[in-house]
Amino acid sequence: MTLDELLASLFARSFTVDERPDGILLGEARLSSAQPLTLIGVVNGMPLGVEGALALAHRVLSVIRSGQRQPILVLIDSDSQRMSRRDELLGLNECLAHLAKSLRLADMAGFPTVSLLYGGGAAGAFVATALATRALVALPSAKPMVMDLPSMSRVTKLPLEVLQRMGSHSSVFAPGLPNMQSMGAINETWDANSDLSGQLSKLLLRIGELGEDQRDRAGAQCGGRKLAARIAAEVMRQALHRD
C-alpha cells in the first residue's frame, strides 16, 4: 500500500500533510467522526536522522503544549536510523531518545498515541517511533526488523547461516511481521482491504483499556519472548523488597 492509498483509506480527503524530501511527514487529519488527529511519520523507506527526529519530537511537544488532547498517529515506512558519521557526531542516539520520550510524555499526558506500520521499520528508528507509542498496529505489508540478518552477522561475527538457523526457532533473531507479533510488539494487524478509518476509530475508543505496557507478557503468551516478563517481574520484586 502506498502512502497516498493509506491516507485516502484513513481519512478520505480530510487531511493535510507536509511530506519532506528526507521522508519526514507532518500533518493534521480528521476521521469520519470529525475527530481531529495529529499526523507524524517516517515514510518512503527513508532513514531517520538528527533533523528528522528533532522535527518529529518538536511536533509532539507542540501538541502537548496546546492542551488539546487529540490522538497522535505515527505512520511508519522507514529504514533504520541514518548511518552517517555526521549524525553520530551530532548525537543521533540522544535525538532518537528525545523523540521516544516525547511520545511517551504525550501518552502520560492523556494523548492517545498509535503507530501504524505499513512498510519497513528497523533498528533505532523503529524503537523511537513504533515501539514508543501506546499501541502499535500493522498492515500485512509491514516488514519490521530489529536488524537485518547480514548486518547482525557483521556485528556478532556469527555466520549468516547460523543466524538463519537460530531465526527459524527464535523470533528474537528473525525479521518479519510474524516474528514481531510473536514477541508481543504488535497490538493488532489490520485488514488492508477494509476501511482503515473504521479500524482506527475502534482502536481509539478502547485505547485507554490497554493499561500499562504488557508487551513482555504478550511475548510470553505468544512464545516469542519466554523469559522477559518473568525476569522483569523478579527485578521489580527485588527492587521493592525491603529488609
Question: What are the defining features of this structure?
Answer:
single chain, 243 residues, alpha/beta, two-stranded parallel ribbon
Write the layout of secondary structure elements.
Elements: H1 3-11, E1 15-19, E2 24-30, E3 36-48, H2 50-66, E4 72-81, H3 85-89, H4 92-108, E5 113-117, E6 120-122, H5 123-128, E7 135-138, E8 143-145, H6 149-156, H7 160-167, H8 177-182, E9 188-189, H9 196-206, H10 215-222, H11 228-240
Parallel strand pairs: 3-4, 4-5, 5-7, 6-8, 7-9
Antiparallel strand pairs: 1-2, 2-3
Concise summary:
This protein has eleven helices and nine strands.
Summarize the structure in words.
The protein has 243 residues and is an alpha/beta fold. Helices cover 44% and strands 21% of the residues. The protein has helices at residues 3-11, 50-66, 85-89, 92-108, 123-128, 149-156, 160-167, 177-182, 196-206, 215-222, 228-240, and strands spanning 15-19, 24-30, 36-48, 72-81, 113-117, 120-122, 135-138, 143-145, 188-189. The strands form two sheets. The protein has a seven-stranded mixed β-sheet, sandwiched between helices. The protein has a two-stranded parallel ribbon with strand order 6-8. The protein is globular and about 50 Å long. The termini are far apart. The mean pLDDT is 85.
